[in-house]
Amino acid sequence: MFPSASWLGSSRPTGRGRAALAVGAAVALAGLIFGPAPAVAQQGTAPVQRSYINPFPNGDRYRVIVLGDSLGDGLWSGLYRAFEEDTNLEFIQRAKAATGFARTNSYDWSKELADLLKTETYQIAIVMFGGIDGQMIRSGKDWLKVGSEPWREIYGQRVEAFIKQLRAVNIAVYWVGLPIMRSAGQNADAEALNDVFREQSFINGAKFVETWNGFTDEAGRYSPYGPDMTGQVKRLRADDGVHFTMRGYLKLAHFVEKELRRDLNLAKIERNIPLAGNEDEQAKVMGRDVLAGSDDPGQPAAPAEAEAAPEAGGAAEPAQGEQAPQLQQSNVGEVSVVRPAIDQTLQAAQSLSPQGGQAAGPDAEMITSELGNGLTAVATISSVTDPSLASSAPRLPLSQRPYYKVLIKGEQLKPKDGRADDFAWPPG
User: What is the per-residue pLDDT across 181-208, written as a single tens digit (0 to 9) for each?
Assistant: First the structure.
C-alpha cells in the first residue's frame, strides 16, 4: 500500500530516514510495475530455465523407478496408465508392501536401494512411503512416540540418507506426500510424516508433491468420495481409510504427472539448445561449468584437414597455399555438425557482462529456428556480435533515466497529451 496524505505531513522523516524511504519506495513501486524479475535475469545469465531432470538420458529414454510401500505400489499402477502413450518413459515398479523407515530390522531400504542402483541406471525416482510408518521407533531400551523430537530426528536421518543415495547418482527425486486419512490417529501420524518428508526433500534437493487437499471435501475433511479424472464423483479411497481404489490411484498419479510433465518439457527445451555450439559453448549458455549428461565437455578436436592447413594469412577462400578456415566438429546425439571455429577473442567478449559474470549481454536477442525432428537452431545477436546494434539502442546515464528522476529524486515528469497524468481542461 502507498502512504496516505496524512502520513506525508508533519511526521515526515528527514535526513537519512528520508533517503531510505525513497529507496524502499523505488523498490516497491518497481516491483508493482514490472513484477518480480526472473532469477536468471537477476544473475546476469542467459534467459534459459534449467530443467530438474537430466535432459540427455541414455538412449533418449527415461527410466523411472517407483519406490515405496503398498501406497507406492498403487501409485505405480496409476502412473504407468497416465503415461501409457509416452513411449520415451519406462516405469519400473520397485515398491514393497509392509516396508518403511520405522522398522529397518526386517527390510532395510538403505541397503536394498544401494543394490538396486548398482545393477540398473535410472533418471527419475518417484517415492511414496507412510502406510505403516506411523509407529514408534525403538532407540536402545526406549520406544519413541510418533511425532516426538527424538522420533523426528531418527526418522528424518533415515529419509535423508535415502534421498542422498538417489541424488548422488543424479536421479531426479519426487517424494509424494501422504493424503488425509480417515481416523484421527492416522491423520495425526500422516501429518507428522509429511513434515519430515517435506523438510528432508527441501534440504536434500528432492521435490515434494502435495496430495493432502486433493482428497478432502469442501470443509477440508476426509471423504472417501470425490471427483475422479473424468470429473464424476466416484469412490476414491479404500475401506481401510488409508489406501485408494484404482480411480483414486489415477487421481493420485495426476499430482505427480503435473510436476513430471512440466520438468520433462523443460528438459526437452534444454536438450534442443546444443545446436547453438559445441559442449563448451553450451555450458556457457546454460551457466554451467559442465554440460549435464556429458562425460567429457572438452573442446572437440578439429578435423584433420583443418589441422593440416598451412599457417598463412590471406583471403577467406583457401587457394594456392593460403590457410583454410579452421573447422570444428560437434556431435548432437547422432548428428555431426561441422562449422568454422569461433574466434576465441570474440567468444571471450561475448561471455562478459557488466556484473563480471558470463552472459550474452544485456541487449542480446535470441533467435530460434525449428529444424524438424525435434531439433532447434539458436543464435544470439548483441552489440558484441553486431556493432550496428550498439548505436541503435543508446543507454541513458543513470541520472537521466525516468525511474531515477521520479522515484529517487522525486521530480515530476512533464505530462503527455491524453496520458493519465494529463489534467489539462478541456481534454486535448
Answer: 999 999 999 999 999 999 999 999 999 9
For the record, the C-alpha cell of 202 comes out as: 527441501
Torsion, Cα 315 318 322 328, to 10 degrees, reads 100
What confidence score (pLDDT) does residue 313 get?
Answer: 43
Contact 78, 253 (CB under 8 A): yes
Q: What share of the chain is helix, strand, coil (3-state, %, to 5)?
A: 40, 15, 45
Q: What is the CA radius of gyration of the chain?
A: 29
Q: Domains in the chain, please, with CATH?
A: 58-271 (3.40.50.1110)
The H or E element spanning position 225 is strand 225-227
CA 72/CA 62 separation, integer angstroms: 19
Q: Looking at the whole model, is its pTM more than 0.85?
A: no
H runs (alpha helix) in 51-183: 70-82, 109-119, 149-167
Q: How remote is the C-alpha of 31 from its chain's centroid?
A: 23
Return the residue matching grid coordinates 577462400: 317
**What's the CA gap between 402 and 418, in Å, rounded?**
19
Q: Which are the contacts of 96, defined by CB distance < 8 A and separation ≥ 6?
A: 69, 73, 107, 112
Helix, strand, or coil (residue 112): helix
Task: Please report the sign of the dihedral spanned by the C-alpha atoms of residue 349, residue 350, residue 353, residue 359.
Answer: negative
Digit-coded pLDDT (tens) for 120-169: 999 999 999 999 999 999 999 999 999 999 999 999 999 999 999 999 99
Q: Please write the tens of the pLDDT for every residue from 44-54.
A: 444 455 789 99
Spatial separation of the C-alpha atoms in residues 186 and 184, rounded to whole Å: 6
Helix (H) or strand (E) holding 124: strand 124-128
* Rounded Cα–Cα distance for residues 226 and 237 (Å): 9
* DSSP 8-state symbol, 322: P
**Grid cell digits, residue 177:** 506426500
Is the link from the previous residue into 36 a cis peptide, with omega within 30 of 0? no
**CA within 13 Å, CB half, 104:** 16
Based on the number of CB atoms within 10 Å of its own CB, is 405 exposed (0-12), middle (13-18) or buried (19 or more)? middle
11: CB partners within 8 A, 6+ apart? none
Give the pLDDT confidence of 61-117 residue by residue, as tens digits. Answer: 999 999 999 999 999 999 999 999 999 999 999 999 999 999 988 899 999 999 999
Could you tell me which residues are beta bridge partners of residue 180?
A: none
